[in-house]
Write a structure and sequence with these properties.
The protein has 242 residues and is mainly alpha-helical. The chain has one domain: Up-down Bundle (Glycerol uptake facilitator protein), CATH 1.20.1080. The chain is built from ten helices and two strands, in the order αααααααββααα. It has a two-stranded antiparallel sheet with strand order 1-2. Strand 1 and strand 2 form a beta hairpin. Helix 4 crosses helix 9.
Length: 242
């Protein structure tokens, strides 16, 4: 498996399970309907764990453009590999979101709330406030990337094996994401990953969903710009502290 394919597969698994838990909690007539925030944050942590387990040995399991940019900014990942990683992450995210829509189609049809349907795919603020929503995404991603920089090297080894997020196993990354969700995720839904939000948001816009409501394009830049800024900030501070 090449790094490009690994990032597609890993991000696919991340979004399949992550947006899958959103669907299970938010859509009507599922067995998990209404089970709450703890289920969502735990499901996303397990989703990260699964994606990193599979992709880690082959690509370093970034699964997130912000992680890729942050590691490159810190000098721990080749800059020329950044575009291909980000492309793969978006492909995987869109495939995962499409799969979630397809398997839950009956439950989308049974759900009247358009916001709940959109929330399966992408984020929206609990209270709209551009500055604070952006700050939340910056801080959440800062925690993720800053922590990652302290327990892994994302670089090519002498034998061209990529050492990345999988180098210490998937559990640390999953626990960090779980902690971010529990502590910082309640205001925006903690995208902390441009591909995680924008890829599924595009699928939400494309697939036929009855009464789907707004796609939320006016907010969509925040889960893209915020994580990138947070990743660059984390890289800068980590470099100063080293």
């Amino acid at each position: 498996m090449t790094p490009f394919v690994a990032e597609i597969v890993g991000t696919f698994l991340l979004i399949l399970l992550g947006c899958g838990v959103n669907a299970n909690v938010s859509l009507q007539k599922t067995y998990g309907n209404g089970s709450g925030w703890m289920v969502i944050t735990t499901g996303w942590a397990f989703a990260v764990f699964t994606g990193v387990v599979v992709a880690g040995p082959y690509s370093g399991a970034h699964l997130n453009p912000a992680v890729t940019v942050g590691l490159a900014a810190a000098g721990e990942f080749p800059i020329d590999a950044v575009p291909s990683y980000i492309l793969a992450q978006f492909i995987g995210a869109m495939l995962g979101a499409f799969s979630v829509w397809l398997m839950n189609k009956d439950h989308f049809d049974a759900t009247e709330d358009g916001d709940a349907k959109r929330g399966v795919f992408c984020n929206a603020p609990a209270i709209p406030n551009t500055f604070l929503n952006l700050l939340t995404e910056i801080l959440g991603t800062f925690v993720l990337v800053f922590a990652v920089l302290y327990f892994t090297d994302a670089m090519l080894a002498s034998d061209n094996t990529i050492i990345g997020l999988g180098s210490l196993g998937a559990l640390p990354v999953a626990l960090i994401v779980w902690g971010i969700g529990l502590s910082l995720g309640g205001t925006t839904g903690y995208a902390i990953n441009p591909a995680r939000d924008m890829g599924p948001r595009i699928i939400h816009a494309l697939v036929p969903i009855k009464n789907k409501g707004s796609n939320g394009w006016g907010y969509s830049w925040i889960p893209v710009v915020g994580p990138i800024l947070g990743a660059i900030l984390a890289a800068g501070i980590a470099m100063v502290l080293q």
